[in-house]
């Protein structure tokens, strides 16, 4: 996880350095993007470092979530036993119902 945050920090630092270098050389920048001129640059504006930092922070968060999902796929958590999920003391007692239904069902028996 720390490698991803270090990478995002390095990219942010690189953008900050490039942003400082571009601010001094704006006089030589041409706004026409014609391919015929040598040394012409595209009119790309200065990046907003606050929004880039938020986007990098969100991207690292998403990468951590994907990593945790991958870890769960490789090492799935152990599922609880069914007896732990179902409260058997809350179920009604079915033996009395079966004692009552047994004689009734025996009346439907046909003899051949």
Task: Outline the structure in words.
With 112 residues, the protein is mainly α. It has four helices and no strands. The longest helix is centred in the middle third of the chain and has 26 residues. The termini are far apart. About 9% of the residues have low confidence.
Short key terms for the protein model shown above:
single chain; 112 residues; mainly alpha; 4 helices
Backbone CA Rg = 35 Å
Helix amount, in percent? 55-70%
Main sheet: strands, sense, barrel: none
Strand content: under 5%
Total strands: 0
Give the helix/strand layout.
Blueprint: H1 2-24, H2 49-74, H3 82-85, H4 95-106
Short summary of the structure?
The chain has 112 residues and is mainly alpha-helical. The chain is 58% helix and 0% strand.
